[in-house]
Design brief:
- The protein has helices spanning 2-8, 12-37, 41-58, 70-83, 85-104, 116-132, 143-158, 168-182, 212-244, 250-266, 276-284, 290-305, 308-311, 316-330, 334-337, 344-360, 363-382, 411-416, 439-453, 466-475, 479-484; strands at residues 66-68, 272-274, 386-391, 397-406, 426-436, 458-462.
- The chain has 21 helices and six strands.
- It folds into two domains: 10-374, no CATH class; 386-484, Transcription Regulator spoIIAA (2-Layer Sandwich).
- It has a four-stranded mixed beta sheet. A two-stranded antiparallel sheet has the order 1-2.
- The chain is 63% helix and 8% strand.
- By secondary structure, the protein is of the alpha/beta class.
Length: 485
């Protein structure tokens, strides 16, 4: 009972106020992502409503907002264009099933392989994308649009100096909306982005399309959606947990996201995942608990159905001001100062991640590139190997002492360290300060033995630990080495 209160009822006022702001900010994004995917705006709105509520209950991260997202919408584009919206619903349901399975198989384990430089690049690139997404709103805009954005920014930044009882971003949206409505200003509004109906989502599964042929079509899309969705959700969860100083079960987050997508697909919505931008709006506006995530979905549907006339008249300028502030607050400015003192490799990985995300407009692809580059750099660092040699007193034996990691990336240098032309009868290779990791390493040892064998030089392998001995015994082609190991 105490845990229930802690997760739901310890921050009621802050959760209610922040969720109102999030609900308002979700509307244009959900509409925009729907248009991007080539479907009716209500598909994205239904998804945002259902996913937000279900992840609040079944997910793991209090205060995190999940809804329809741009990264997921981009994957749907070709599917909807080539096969139609019914395939989108099937792909969404299958995405949820795959995510639940990945949760049970400990997919969150992958998070420990994402370095901090990639995380920083992810956050900074998202900030850039959020800001750049606001720029099209200024195309052909009147001076009034610019003035409204400036006034909105002033309200958001100055109001907290006098009072922080109500989120300043929410005040900015209400104030600018009231002004444009009372003055009948000719500015672009939420209603201009797409028609908002007042029909509740209905249960619908296109059973007639569910067959092996359809599965072959949607499975590649669903696999991509599942991985992209979980990657963004787990990255966002990690950031929100750091901000709120909490720990969560990441595999539960995978299952919660999957369950949300299954239900969403059954009720006419598109697959979604966690949204870092909206989650940051929620947390920085005072939303800390599950109640804020739940109410964000509830207020979203209330705004659409009960306050439809008002919502459609919210000026885009107000939402642009909010998102500009979010982008500024999201960007880790300290990372720019640290570029000079950070290791060159870390700075490079962060910058590559940012460029990759901004260039592809896909957070998941950018993160994958960042992880790949960071791993290549890491492999290059640990592949440095050293082999010292000395001639014994009898001058018929050569001792080699290997230091470092012997694996696929270091075997070429390892093999080249040995002198196969010297006039000795016996060679001792000491692995006390080294470790043999893989088949490539065993193959390199076999190659060294073969080269010395051609010269009638005996090779002794010493200093192997039990793990290395077992590996060599299983993989070597030399019977004598099997006995040694």
């Amino acid at each position: 009972m105490n845990n229930y209160k802690k997760e739901w009822l310890y921050n009621v006022k802050g959760d209610i106020l922040s969720s109102m702001l999030v609900a308002i900010a979700l509307i244009p994004e959900a509409i925009g992502f729907s248009i991007l995917a080539g479907v009716n705006p209500m598909v994205g709105l239904y998804a945002s409503f259902l996913i937000s509520i279900i992840t609040a209950i079944a997910g793991a991260t209090p205060g995190m907002i999940s809804a329809a997202t741009g990264a997921m919408a981009l994957i749907f584009v070709s599917l909807v264009k080539n096969y139609g919206i019914d395939y989108l619903f099937i792909a969404t349901i299958l995405t949820g099933i795959i995510q639940i399975l990945l949760g049970f198989f400990n997919f969150s384990y992958i998070m420990r392989f994402i370095p901090r430089s990639v995380m920083t690049g992810f956050v900074n690139s998202l900030a850039i994308l959020i800001f750049s997404a606001q720029l099209p709103h200024f195309k052909g805009a009147s001076i009034q649009m610019y003035l409204l954005v400036v006034v909105g920014l002033l309200i958001i930044y100055l109001l907290p100096k006098f009072s922080d009882k109500i989120p300043s971003a929410l005040v900015a949206i209400i104030a600018l909306s009231a002004f444009t409505i009372l003055t009948n200003s000719d500015v672009k509004t939420v209603g201009d982005m797409g028609e908002l109906t007042t029909a509740l989502p209905k249960f619908y599964i296109p059973f007639e399309l569910i067959n092996m042929e359809t599965l072959k079509i949607v499975l590649p899309y669903s696999m991509s959606l599942a991985v992209v969705g979980l990657l963004e959700s787990l990255l966002t969860s990690s950031i929100i947990c750091d901000m709120n100083d909490i720990k969560v079960n990441s595999n539960r987050e995978c299952v919660g996201q999957g369950l949300a997508n299954i239900v969403t697909g059954m009720f006419g919505g598109m697959a979604g995942c966690a949204m870092l931008g909206q989650s940051l709006i929620n947390v920085t506006s005072g939303g800390k608990k599950r109640l804020s995530s739940l109410l964000a979905g509830v207020f979203l549907i209330i705004l659409i159905f009960l306050l439809n006339p008002f919502v459609t008249r919210i000026p885009i300028a107000a939402l642009v001001a909010v998102m500009v502030v979010v982008s500024i607050n999201t960007f880790e400015w300290e990372s720019l100062k640290n570029l000079k003192i950070m290791p060159v490799a870390d700075s490079l990985v962060m910058l590559i991640t940012i460029v990759s995300v901004v260039f592809t407009h896909n957070l998941a692809k950018g993160v994958f590139v960042g992880i790949l580059i960071s791993k290549l750099i890491f492999v290059a660092k640990i592949s440095k190997i050293n082999v010292d040699s000395n001639l014994s007193n009898c001058k018929t034996k050569r001792d080699y002492i290997v230091s470092g990691q012997v694996f696929f990336a270091s075997v070429m240098d390892f093999v080249n360290y040995f002198d196969y032309k010297e006039d000795v009868k016996e060679v001792n290779i000491d692995f006390s300060n080294a470790k043999v990791w893989d088949d490539s390493a065993v193959g390199a040892i076999d190659k060294i033995i073969d080269k010395y064998k051609n010269k009638d030089i005996k090779v002794n392998i010493n200093g192997l630990n039990d793990e290395c001995k077992s590996l060599i015994k299983n993989l070597t082609v030399h019977p004598c080495l099997k006995k040694t190991a």
